[in-house]
Design goal:
This protein has about 240 residues and is an alpha+beta fold. It has three domains: about 1-55, Structural Genomics Hypothetical 15.5 Kd Protein In mrcA-pckA Intergenic Region, Chain A (Roll); about 65-125 and about 210-235, Alpha-Beta Plaits, CATH 3.30.70; about 130-210, Alpha-L RNA-binding motif (Alpha-Beta Plaits, 2-Layer Sandwich), CATH 3.30.70. The chain has helices at about 5-10, 15-25, 115-125, 145-150, 190-195, 225-235, and strands at about 1-5, 30, 35, 40, 50, 55, 65-70, 100, 110-115, 130-140, 155, 160, 165-170, 175-180, 200-210, 210-215, 220-225. The strands form four sheets. Strands 7, 8, 9, 10, 13, 14, 15, 16 and 17 form a nine-stranded mixed beta sheet that branches. The chain has a four-stranded antiparallel beta sheet with strand order 3-2-5-6. A hairpin with a 2-residue loop joins strand 15 (about 200-210) and strand 16. Helix 1 (about 5-10) crosses helix 2. The radius of gyration is 19 Å and the shape is elongated.
């Protein structure tokens, strides 16, 4: 017998704390019945657990992958509408892995995936200030004043304050290219920030996540992270010395 949140963590879905959020949100079912009680105990040998309708099982080994996501592909492993998803490109990954955060349909670039629930949870959590770097093309002549305003902080749709470090790579009357670095990565944050200063995003590519890039990977291709890269990610979120969740 095992607590449901611990079981979900062992399956690589998320950390124990993240699993509690999934349970209370009603996204977890046991033997076909929705469960919303955090302290639920299951029999891992006989019970069938699903998250958002997909069966989850404990990971045999930890897998860490970087994927160069193409535009027009949704960041989900199961899509009831049959749209092209990242699952179409990850069929050769030997274990079921889960995306660390999301990239919008039209956004391309670095996407990390793993079945290490604790690491995934911390990498995606604003508390740990993991840097995400984006190459952004926006409409219009982008000025340093607009960059400074984004750096000072702008109110987002969810009420939080979003901010980023902005470097202007090139700028013209028609379009400008920026390099933006965020440490919280809230939902559609780059697009919200740029729109707030009057420069809608025309193209968006994530080039780094926690120091990991997709350099050398064609769109739609993936590779395993090296032991050194995994170690650096764990250091970033203090899992090298703190194993409590």
């Amino acid at each position: 017998m095992i607590r449901l949140n611990k079981y979900l963590s062992q399956c690589g879905v998320t950390s124990r704390r993240g699993a509690e959020a999934l349970i209370t949100a009603g996204r977890v079912s046991v033997n076909g019945r929705r469960v919303d009680t955090v302290g639920t105990v299951i029999d891992e040998e006989t019970d069938t657990v699903t998250v958002d309708g997909s069966v989850v099982t404990p990971a045999e080994r930890k897998i860490y992958v970087v994927f160069n996501k193409p535009p027009g592909v949704i960041t989900t492993l199961d899509d009831p509408f049959g749209r092209k998803s990242i699952a179409n490109y990850l069929k050769d990954v030997p274990e079921r892995v889960y995306p660390v955060g999301r990239l919008d349909l039209d956004t391309q670039g670095v996407l990390l995936l793993t079945n290490d629930g604790d690491l995934a949870y911390r990498l995606a959590h604003p508390k740990y200030q993991v840097e995400k770097v984006y190459d952004v093309r926006v409409a219009g002549l982008f000025t340093q004043a607009a960059a400074d305003r984004i750096g000072s902080g702008i109110s987002l749709e969810d009420g939080a304050t979003g901010r980023a470090t902005v470097r202007i790579v090139s700028s013209s009357d028609d379009a400008s290219r920026l390099r933006m670095t965020l440490t919280e990565g809230r939902k559609r944050e780059v697009k919200q920030l740029c729109r707030a200063v009057g420069h809608p995003v025309k193209q968006l590519r994530r080039v780094r996540f926690g120091g990991i890039s997709a350099r050398g990977l064609k769109l739609g291709k993936w590779r395993y992270l090296s032991d050194e890269e995994v170690s650096e990610l764990r250091k970033l979120v203090k899992l090298d010395r703190d194993h409590r969740e």
